[in-house]
Design a protein that fits this description.
alpha/beta; binds iron/sulfur cluster
């Protein structure tokens, strides 16, 4: 199973380039491969320019070339407002959308070249409901494809192959354009973010004429220079992860680590073939928190993995009590076609999975509630995501969009999505905070 490939032609001004960037970022996070060639693409997107006649002619020519070479073409961008003209010249185009119509373009790509599979909670990088490209003040930044590990429940390596890191100059260039376009928060994602650069032996690339290593720590440092929120997802606790904790303590990178632990019992972790597994993880967590007391830890877990005994499960609950993670998602194990874990003996019956899942959630909810209650009275930065009839809703450094909690803000001031404010926490519940604006 290989990823569907999208060919992309981007014409026009820097604004159009930002549109292209947003569409490409989205498609990459959904598992599409981007190819510079027409002939091996499953569909081609042409982002057009319609500013002056010569630009229009160039756009029509590019559409014609893509149709001749590939046949399946989606048109977007400024010239998309002249759909009739485009269809008159090129009746074969599949869809025509205008500038900044990111969602429509992505939908048209889904139709022309459906993504390989449905949402897989074990391995997908984005929330099940997909990425909203609006509000536009946050963006996902995908830094690599594929994965060198072979976790027994996961089919990503057989689908997407081994780790391939994007050149650091490309990643930084994309980040810069996103920030210039108004993005206030970059969410760094990949299947294994802390392994960034392993495949190229951490070689140096260039950004703005300066050498910079293809490495997780150097990338984090470089992204910090943009002065926006940088949030790190899918980080495995390799030893060098310790190096980003000081950046977090200094406020350069958000004090937030998303580490998919999946389990705690050594026996189950071995059966899962998890990377960077070692029994000193709890000690590492304590050390990180000492160095950076504001650190938020998010993770996901699987309960009911084949062979999981009551003892393993209890081990997990005890570990959770010790680890005091802030944000946690939990899935009941279910076999994924093609995964080696399907052959493991001793499957856990469905009713036991359900019962363990409920106990896990209850256990963690108490931890999360207590941790949030400790924030009452503190001052925090809040990035406003939306305004609904009850007022502004935002997030703190501890909340990734869609998957974590919210901060409900009480204020007299007129706020807009993308505003960064200062607020004092007045109340909390299991997942969310309530706060009043103070600046
Ligand atoms: S680390 Fe494991 S779960 Fe994650 S993508 Fe790689 S093989 Fe899959």
């Amino acid at each position: 199973m290989s990823s569907p490939k999208v060919g992309f032609v981007s014409l026009g001004c820097p604004k159009a380039l930002v549109d292209s960037e947003r569409i490409l970022t989205q498609l990459r996070t959904e598992g599409y491969a981007i190819t510079p060639e027409y002939d091996n693409a499953d569909v081609v997107v042409v982002n057009t320019c319609g500013f002056i006649d010569s630009a229009k002619a160039e756009s029509l020519e590019a559409i014609g070339e893509a149709i001749a070479e590939n046949g399946k073409v989606i048109v977007t961008g400024c010239m998309g407002v002249e759909e009739n003209l485009i269809r008159e010249v090129h009746p074969a185009v599949l869809a025509v959308t205008g500038p900044q119509q990111y969602e429509q373009v992505v939908r048209a790509v889904h139709q022309a070249a459906p993504p390989n599979r449905g949402h897989d909670p074990y391995v997908d990088l984005v929330p099940p409901q997909g990425i909203k490209l609006t509000p536009r003040h946050y963006a996902y930044l995908k830094i690599s494809e594929g994965c060198n590990h072979r976790c027994s429940f996961c089919i990503i390596p057989s689908m997407r192959g081994d780790l391939v890191s994007r050149p650091i100059g490309d990643v930084m260039g994309e980040a810069e354009r996103l920030v210039r376009a108004g993005v206030k928060e970059l969410l760094v994602i990949s299947q294994d973010t802390s392994a960034y650069g392993v495949d190229v032996k951490f070689r140096s690339g260039f950004w703005n004429g300066r050498p910079i290593k293809t490495h997780f720590t150097q990338l984090s440092e470089a992204l910090a220079r943009f002065g926006v929120w940088v949030r790190l997802h899918y980080v495995y606790p390799y030893p060098h992860v310790d190096e980003v904790i000081p950046l977090m303590a200094e406020g350069k990178v958000l004090p937030y680590l998303d580490i998919p632990f999946q389990h705690a019992s050594p026996r189950i972790l071995r059966a899962m073939k998890r990377p960077a597994f070692e029994d000193r993880t709890l000690a590492r967590i304590h050390k990180w928190r000492e160095a950076c007391p504001d650190l938020t830890l998010r993770s996901t877990f699987i309960v009911g993995f084949p062979g999981e005994t009551e003892e393993d499960f209890q081990y997990l609950l005890d570990w959770m009590s010790e680890a005091q993670l802030d944000r946690v998602g939990c899935f009941q194990y279910s076999p994924v076609e093609g995964a080696r874990a399907n052959e493991l003996p001793d499957p856990v019956p469905d009713e036991v999975k359900q019962e363990r899942w409920e106990r896990f959630m209850e256990h963690q909810q108490a931890i999360s509630t207590a941790r949030l209650a400790q924030k009452v009275g503190r001052e925090i930065d809040v990035l406003i995501d939306e305004i609904d009839e009850d007022g502004p809703i935002g997030r703190s450094s501890a909340d990734a969009p869609e998957i974590d909690g919210n901060v409900f803000v009480n204020t007299d001031r007129e706020l807009r999505p993308g505003d960064m404010i200062r607020a004092r926490v007045t109340d909390s519940d299991e997942y969310d905070l309530y706060a009043e604006q103070i600046g």
